[in-house]
TrEMBL record:
Upper taxonomic lineage: Bacteria, Pseudomonadati, Pseudomonadota, Gammaproteobacteria, Moraxellales
Protein name (database record): Protein of uncharacterized function (DUF962)
Transmembrane segments: 29-46, 76-104
Biological source species: Moraxella caprae
Matches recorded under InterPro entries: Mpo1-like (IPR009305)
Aminoacyl-tRNA synthetase found in the keyword field: no
Record-level GO BP terms: sphingoid catabolic process
A Gene Ontology term for the protein's cellular component: membrane
Keywords, in A-Z order: Membrane, Transmembrane, Transmembrane helix
């Protein structure tokens, strides 16, 4: 196992994630809820402990850099945006908890519409692939489902 390279290529991660994200309604829900969930996690960690936030951030960004440089850059930029919102938004921790819960409800509604269980039920790493899938989809780079 090479510590600087993911064992699974990015294209495979994205195509496996896409399998349970084919329905247009589910996709739209994910395009909204996944970034919100990422934001709320950054905000919650910021409000709980900046040290914990730093440790989690290093781990998450390490995951992305092992996938590809473009993944790392995209998620670093998004993380920076989320951190800025978390620091400067005039709301407290309970606001972020409520938004987190509502966004997750949205995710599960989307999967009910899709008729497929969430990818992270198979592998928790898909919780980090979801935000990347959304980011790449916004730039037209999400691969179609592979048969």
């Amino acid at each position: 196992m090479h510590p600087f390279k993911s064992q699974k290529p990015l294209s495979l991660w994205l195509s496996e994630y896409a399998v349970s994200h084919q329905n247009p309604t589910n996709k739209r829900i994910h395009y909204i809820c996944v970034p919100i969930i990422f934001l709320t996690i950054v905000a919650l960690l910021y409000h709980i402990s900046t040290y914990l936030l730093a440790v989690v951030t290093i781990g998450v960004l390490w995951f992305y850099v092992r996938l590809s440089l473009s993944s790392f850059i995209a998620m670093l930029a998004f993380y920076g945006l989320c951190l800025g919102v978390a620091v400067f938004a005039p709301v407290g921790i309970w606001f972020w908890v409520e938004v987190f819960v509502v966004a997750w409800i949205g995710q599960f509604v989307g999967h009910k519409v899709e008729g497929a269980k969430p990818s992270f039920f198979e592998d928790l790493q898909f919780l980090l692939i979801g935000p990347l899938w959304v980011a790449f989809a916004l730039f037209g780079k999400t691969p179609a489902r592979q048969s």
